[in-house]
Amino acid sequence: MKEEVLSDEKIIEVQNLSKQFKEIRAVDNLSLNVYKGDVFGFLGPNGAGKSTTIRMLLSLIKPSGGNIKLFGKSLKENRIEILKKIGAIVEKPDFYGYMTAYKNMEILGKISGSNISKKRIMEMLELVGLHKRYKSKVKTFSHGMKQRLGLAQALLHEPDLIILDEPTTGLDPQGMKEIRDLIIYLSKEKKKTIFLSSHILYEVELVANRMVIIDKGYAKVEGNVSDLLNSNKLKVTFEVDEIEKAKLLINDTSWMKMLDSIVGNKLIFLLEPGEISFLNKLFVENNILVSAVIPTRSLEEYFLSITETVSK
Amino acid sequence: MIGLINIELYKIFRKWRTYIGFIAIAVLVSVIQVAMLVEGQRSINFMTHNLQQSFILVGNLLNGYLVSHLILNTLVIHIPFLITLVAGDLLAGEATSGTYRMLITRPVSRINIVTSKFLAGIIYTCMIIFFLAIFSLGLGLSIFGSGDLLVVQNGTIIVFSKNDVLWRFLLAYCFSSLGMGVVASLAFLFSSLVENAIGPIISTMAIIIIFIIISGINIEIFRAIKPYLFTNYMNGWRLFFDDPIDIKEIIKDSLILLGHIFLFFGSAALIFQKKDILS
After folding, report:
1. Band (B185; pLDDT cuts 50, 70, 90)
2. Mind telling me how many Å the CA of A186 is from chain B's nearest CA?
């Protein structure tokens, strides 16, 4: 997981944002803050209002209520100035299929009003691994290649804020990893602020430092990913060589109360994060070889618990 | 803005449908020219049958100007369809292909986007008419040669000297561009409302066909609404082949057509400004 970024400069400031589509309230009084340097996870189940929020952040749709400030300025009044600093992928990236990858990039650069050089375009295509296909028409590209081209166009004008709406949708595991690595690279090396919407939860867990979980259009939880994950007990699996000896060791101790289940030579405990090392030490000091300690308490479980609570 | 218009023109001319209009005009003009080469003299004799009983007609009556006038008369009804193929796709096409999102998240105002698209559509429309002019006059004059133009205007036969014709054609083509501009604007307006180009094409053609039919039926109730139908003014190019030319009527018709263009474009721009991009 990405290390915490300490900055009090707000890049995205959303207050009481709402969007009503006839009878449907897609976003309901949503408030969130994204700080400079954040990789901000924007989580929620399908239909939670993630894409609608992103479309409002990019002025694709107009809010029914509330305020959006980006880089400290009102989006409504400073749209063009703000959009110069943003690169985005909104849902699946679509391009002019009858043009080449290079021409698409060139046109998007020109529309942005930036003087984007051929070198810059080729650099971005190389970054996403499409430089050898720059002369190919986009209609010949696979979904994964279009996703990568989407990233390239988002980065073309060197934006400070990158908004990625489900950037790994439809990608194979290798493609997903590449996108994750790229996000980490952009955050750590290029110091970009990244707003990442996803329903692939472990993806957020791996790259984000802060997050919000939304459901039915409103924010349920916002905070540091590590704090949110550590706010409840973790499910930790200890794989040991001598299961009977381990069981005997913890019998009649307070650890027994924390034991959730035993599967083969695996003891599964419900622990506070700080307790893991103590239990590990106990096993090791009693000559029980611990071959693996696997914390299974994931964002996914946390996410489900949050959204299920909301549903109930 | 010029950069944006260039991009829009590039997009227009990278699509196959754009060339359908040029190909159709080339084919139709060629077919009419060949037909006139075969049957033209007989048609001229039929047209001037009564006149020949009182006058002796000399010179080349079946000439490039006459054929071009005939073509303009015929094709100006069909060209709207070719215009809507492109104009109806200008905004709706972006929605269909999903490229609206990338376009509108760029740091450019929506009014600039919609205006550049509209102007590109108008340029395309003018190019179609220009192509018609060049192809029709060029081919006509090279096949049939030059000569005086014989025109039947409001039941009267008017003969224009060959030296007095070319400027009338040029202005007639300019006026036709204005008329086709209204068609393009209407298709553009419909294009701003939907997310599929088929709807604007069919809707625009339906309106034009209905208006032309209503204009053509000479009964009291239709006569009353005729002045409110823009198609009624699209044939104003014929006024340039009148003697004397009714300048006031031409100005009036031009202003009405221009008013329609501004009305349709203004509505499209307003809709586009307020539109939620959900595609």
Report:
1. very high
2. 20
* pLDDT over threshold 90, residue B124: yes
Cα–Cα distances in Å, from B32 out to A182, B29, B130, B144, B170?
A: 62, 5, 18, 12, 20
Residue B23 domain-assigned (yes or no): yes
Q: Quick one: pLDDT band at residue A231, thresholds 50, 70, 90?
A: low
User: What's the CA gap between B269 and B81, in Å, rounded?
Assistant: 23
Evaluate whether residue B279 is within a structural domain: no
Instruction: Answer yes or no: is B113 within a domain.
Output: yes
B7 at A interface, C-beta within 8 A: yes
Which of B4, B14, B98 minimises the CB distance to A111? B4
CA distances from A287 to A196, A242, A271, A290 (A): 45, 9, 22, 9
What pLDDT band is residue B78 in, cutting at 50, 70 and 90? Answer: confident
CA closest to A79 among chain B residues = B107
The residue range of the domain holding B126 is 2-274
| CB-based contact A92 B109, cutoff 8 Å | no
Number of domains in chain B: 1
B143, burial (CB in 10 Å: exposed 0-12, middle 13-18, buried 19+): middle
Distance CA A24, CA B3 (A): 40
Tokens representing A76?
């409504």
B107: closest CA of chain A, how far (Å): 5
Instruction: Give chain A's domains with CATH numbers.
Output: 10-230 (3.40.50.300), 234-296 (3.30.70)
Q: Are A303 and A43 in contact (CB under 8 A)?
A: yes
pLDDT in tens, A158-198: 889 999 988 887 777 887 888 888 888 888 888 889 999 88
Task: Chain A: give the shortest CA distance to residue B10, in Å.
Answer: 10
Instruction: Report yes or no: B112 at the A interface, CB cutoff 8 Å.
Output: no
With CB atoms and an 8 Å threshold, state whether A94 touches B278. Answer: no
Measured between CA atoms, the residue of chain A closest to residue B16 is: A98
